[in-house]
Amino acid sequence: MNDKKVAFITSVNDEELYEESKFYAEHLIVPGDIEVEFVKIKKFNSITGAYNEGIKRSDAKYKVFMHQDVFIVNKNFIYDILQIFSLNKEIGMIGMVGCKTIPSNGVWWEANDCFGKVADSHIGSMEIINFKEVKDIYEEVSAIEGLIMITQYDIPWREDIFQGWHFYDISHSLEFKRNGYKVVVPKQQSIWCIHDCGRIELDFSYEDNRRRLIDEYGEEINALKTN
């Protein structure tokens, strides 16, 4: 893998939205020895399938898996993620918001120990979501939200289980833990990302994937509560 490359990997079905997201990423400050590439994945039935395709297409050590409606506003984003990864080789993945203990139902934001911050419009209007403040450079968590998931190791996304667009993020967080890596949320003086997703309407696939999550990881989720 090329440890001097950062890849921004996105599953795309809205070209205009993607180009706006890409515009923000293209204007980040890039360290002089780092190469940046953009990997656009189209016509996939699941985000896990799209992201696995992204892994195949890029040899970058550092991969930023992000939604097409995410706009990175922290100009030093690349510096910041590389610094965090350099601090501890056990850090496998970074996200903007997450929880230290995953509720038994698998719904991460219902936890009492969520950390991080992001601008988000899932209620229909944009707001700053502030969870608990990260005191140090980063806070280790059990799971992160999937709007943006930054990795320094390639671990396959579980498309054998998750064929839709829900709970893949909790799954991937737990897959990193299964492989002995830490998942963290960074300290943000101000928000790093805007997630302009619009109002979210949940369908049958949400509950189906939630049950798949519990079937596969239920024992691990419960074990995390006792650690």
UniProtKB/TrEMBL annotation:
Pfam families: Glyco_tranf_2_5 (PF13712)
Alphabetical list of InterPro entries matching this protein: Nucleotide-diphossugar_trans, StrF_dom
Domain Streptomycin biosynthesis protein StrF: 7-217
This protein's name: Glycosyltransferase family protein
Record lineage: Bacteria, Bacillati, Bacillota, Clostridia, Eubacteriales
